[in-house]
Amino acid sequence: MVDTSLLFSIFLTAWTCSASPPNFVLLFADDLGFGDLGSYGHPSSLTPNLDRLAAGGLRFTDFYCSSPVCSPSRASLLTGRYQTRSGIYPGVLYPSSIGGLPLSETTIAEMLKPLGYATAAVGKWHLGFGSKGMYLPTNQGFDQYLGIPYSHDMGPCHNLTCFPPDIKCFGMCDFSSVAIPLMYNKVIIQQPVNFLDLERDYSDFATNFITTSTKKKQPFFLYYPSHHTHYPLYAGPDAAGISLRGPFGDALLDLDNTIGKIMTTLEKTGVINNTLVLFTSDNGPELMRMSRGGNAGLLKCGKGTTYEGGMRVPAIAFWPGTISPGVTHELASTLDVLPTFTRLAGAKLPKVILDGVDMTEILVNQGKSQREAMMFYPTDPSEKYGLFALRLGKYKAHFYTRGATHSGTTPDRDCSVFAGLKAHDPPLVFDLEADPSEHYPLSLEGKPDLQGVLERIKKVKKQFESSMVFGESQTSKGRDPSLEPCCNPDCSPKPDCCLC
Of 299, 498, 286, which Cα lies nearest the Cα of 408? Predict the structure, then answer.
């Protein structure tokens, strides 16, 4: 019998030695649900560029983020480690947060730079600002950064107009913080940011970065963590009022337009066949916003919960000539991006405990996943409670369940914040292939096969938790209003005077 894994390893070694190092484009949506894209079943979303990626690439059906909220999910994406290790918990970072992603953590950008890669981030960072911008992307391996360093609802809605353009933004924003800044590297170039021009600025920056890197014959890594489709919604003139889906659909189209310009630039510069493009989302949809939030499709609940709707997200991998079009049901995660990029680039993995695994076999051969299990931590993980849920193969066991404010307004009472913490002994066990909506917990009584599955799940859980060392919480270090980015730092009274 032919050892296909050995043949694949020989092929990959020969390919990495003979070919130019591949480029990487990582597209990261915000609060986009499993059911929000047309390629995942939504009937009225307008996303022609993402549809092309899905048609010409590999679409994942069982792809997970590591946390149902922003900052911890982003930390895991860039480090390949659960947020509990890096200390990005509980909850998220704020403009005045003292902490941030520790500089001792190794990001994808820091893995690639020693190999001569140009690195750039454009969009929402949300991994800390800190004293003198110490936690910004340019201190985490990125050569350049253009974007807003945190979530765009963390400030007053100055100049954030929606649909049509003469109507001010819908919903509440944080008026106790400074106006939302747009930063280039560590310098504020606009405060408040003009959201109607923002995607144009982002696409110009991204396309210029690709063009410049290509002219220099330098491999590149572009990270585009979009603000879309986080609330409050906005869209530029090329998207506002155009989709069939209202404000959410327009914001999604705005994201799609930027992706289209990036893809066109990859084609025009002739590097499309040597570039891995990976698209996914940081967590599930914010259902409390109703039609102005996202959609989890047939999955249960959404953002803030450890149900499938909170942490199973759309994902598409596109690489003409290397990735064949298709659909994979293999288990994969944002945690797996760093190990995969590292292997494809020929880089060395950081000498730390990694929770991600290499996805190359899935991408290149539509083969089997190296990922045995997926762990589900709540927004406020603790050593006391440990994992809320664990998926092993097609089975998922819930040891604790809890609703969330982010997932309110749905008819399902399990999703609401009023569904308090509940321990399950024995755990609730679901067959996610037969019941992805988590409606029907399996009865284990008199079923030795299922009882054996649960025992294996408990064993994997015990082994994992015994290896987990919680890092110092960065979000619990407190806040200092003087740390909020202000383009006129000596002005008064703050925060209102921080305008330029």
Answer: 286
Exposure string of 123-157, with b = 16+ CB inside 10 Å and e = fewer, is: bbbbbbbbeebebbbbbbbbbbbbbbbbbbbbbbb
What's the CA gap between 109 and 129, in Å, rounded? 18
Q: Where are the strands (E) in 103-246, listed by range? A: 118-124, 144-148, 182-184, 187-190, 220-225
Cβ atoms 35, 296 nearer than 8 A? yes
Q: List phi, psi (to 5°) of 25.
A: -125, 115
pLDDT in tens, 259-290: 999 999 999 999 999 999 999 999 999 999 99
What strands lie across the sheet with 422-431, from one edge to the other? Answer: 373-376, 389-392, 395-401, 422-431
Question: What residue ranges do the domains of the chain occupy?
Answer: 20-372, 376-467
Task: Please calculate the CA angle 35-40-43 and round it to the nearest 5 degrees.
Answer: 75
- Domain 20-372 homologous superfamily, CATH: Alkaline Phosphatase, subunit A (3.40.720.10)
Is this model's pTM higher than 0.85 or not?
yes
More reliable by pLDDT, 195 or 186: 186
Which one is catalytic: 65, 70, 162, 169? Answer: 70
User: DSSP string spanning 84-110?
Assistant: HHHT--SS---TTBS--S-TTS--HHH
Least-confidence region, from 116-130, 145-159, 308-322, 408-422: 145-159
Distance in angstroms (rounded) separating the CA atoms of residues 27 and 398: 30
How high is the pLDDT of residue 453?
A: 96
469: Cα separation from own chain's centroid: 23
Going by the DSSP 8-state scheme, the letter that residue 451 receives in this structure is H
Using alpha carbons, list the distances in angstroms from residue 181 to 150, 486, 498. 9, 8, 9
CATH top-level class of 376-467: alpha beta
Confidence band, pLDDT 50/70/90 cuts, at residue 82: very high
Structure tokens at 450: 């299922």
Whether 126 sits among the annotated catalytic residues: the reply is: yes
Q: Where are the beta strands (DSSP E) in 255-347?
A: 275-281, 315-318, 326-328, 332-333
Catalytic residue among 42, 126, 158, 230: 126
**174 DSSP assignment:** -
Q: Exposed, middle or buried, 340 (CB in 10 Å: 0-12/13-18/19+)?
A: buried
Read off the tokens for 277.
Answer: 């493009």
294 closest CA partner among 229, 225, 227, 234: 229
pLDDT band for 232, please (50, 70, 90 cuts). Answer: confident
